[in-house]
Specification:
Helices cover 27% and strands 27% of the residues. By secondary structure, the protein is α+β, with helices and mostly antiparallel strands. It is globular. The relative contact order is 0.16.
Length: 165
Amino acid sequence: MEISGEKIWLSRVSINDLDFICRIECDENLWYFEEYVESDENVVREEYIQRMEEKEKPTSYDFIVTAAVDKKKTPIGLAQVWNDSEYRKSWEIGFAILPEYEGKGYGSEAAKLLLQFAFEKLAAHKVIGMCNSNNTRSAALMEHLGMRREAIFKEELFWQNKWVD
């Protein structure tokens, strides 16, 4: 499955993408605002293999982000949507773009395509995005896309040895 945008393509993660996935998922700098980053590539690899094997009714969709102008299809990021609540038809989005490709609108378009996919293909009633309150760029991007701030989970994350919203 591939989703085309103006600047990027989203293509479902395959076995051939696992080295890239491990590199991106285990990069603490890329996930600076997260409370935990898996450092064991074998754990990451197994997790993605299990998700790829979900054929009947997937609970998550993982996509490689590629710049549309790149004929070699060099991966530049990861975009994901996963089921937050089946009963409520609620999905959550997340994405990461490699630092050398930031600031070009790729993350914004990836999030926009994920929202469109969730509502149109997954019949989502609601799509959420959550971020560390210190990650102001992520919060601004979500609001720019039309998502609205509905709640602040006070002291939800244990980040850099303190509780943050």
